[in-house]
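User: My collaborator sent over this chain with a note saying "see what the structure looks like." That's all I know about it. Can you take a look?
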Amino acid sequence: MFCGILGKDFPIRSPHFHRTQIWFHASCRVAILDCVFQKSSSTVWQHFLCLRTLAREIGVLFGGKSVVLENMGGKVKQETKPPRINSLDALGPYIGQQDNAKNFVYISDIPRLCKDEPCMLGVDEAGRGPVLGPMVYGIAFCPLSKKDVLKTLGFADSKQLTEEKRDQIFDEMNQKDYATEALGWAVEAISPNTISMSMLRRTKCSLNEVSMNSAIGLIHAAIEAGVNIAEVYVDTVGPPEKYQAKLKDIFPKFKITVAKKADSTYPIVSAASIAAKVTRDHALKVWQFRERPNEEENTFGSGYPGDPTTKKFLGEVDLVFGFPRLVRFSWSTAGNALDKKAYDMEFDDADDGKDAQSKATYGSEKLSKYFSASKNESRKRHEYFRERCLEHVVEF
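Assistant: Without extra context I'll predict from the sequence alone. Here is the result:
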């Protein structure tokens, strides 16, 4: 085996492989592992895992990404580390690569101090009220000894800051050395599709439950990433006493504080608020319509019901399919717009025969009329069944 970094080769031998190379491509900033072996065994596999880890560390060391080429019996597998958000410019392209019909979670690089020292962690959300777009939950964590970093960055409630100021702070928290050495963050973007399905399914899941599950999941993700959490501060959803008791049951070792307007009181919650708000803003900017592939500009506004642009967007209803997935169908604003213009949908339910003949709203038509036979029309069985004398049998 030989390991070449930036053009320099270091002879390292491995008896388990015919050919093994780890090298760093300087122009592409990519670390590559290429290894070949004929006979697989547990020992060979353990050696390979060690080599793969080494290749990844080389890629990270030189500020690039690692590509692992596994050549086993002629089969080649390529593995690329996911892109990192290290500036505001990288946020939009990252979100644009995600499936906006599903949730996604992003966790920043974890500073070494956050693993070695006790940390505070803040939780907040953005986009809870709008009828359009995702709701984003964010967390931020920082060592208790580095509270001055939060003050230096100027964290405040993201709703009280202008968009330009939020973007500036987000850029600094991901680029300034004093910030990246002491502050980490993570977000979960909860798609409008997920929100609608949760609130409209037979066993309903309220928006508060969706919110709490996201917050708890992000705290678990921080723990799994190695963050040494000591204190947790949360902007409340619903009664703060019940929420705090629930979190205390799940995380008994942490000091937990759940309060109203926590983003205005605790700087670490403000940091989480900015991460969430900036992520949501850029998710809307790069939103790609599956239903309208040629639509490039934002024609839907901020997503809040009072926005004139949003009102106009909600007035453009497809009579059959309603709205694109950007819209939260579980919101009354969207439901009222559908009731006024879209066709009524009728679903047959064997357990609810009395309601099968529900009346349509004034001025609308039932979609089922296009698929049902008229009362005077006697339906003939398909030719396939008549030619073969096949009958429907209920009992033998």
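A starting point for your reply to your collaborator: DSSP finds 14 helices and twelve strands in the chain.
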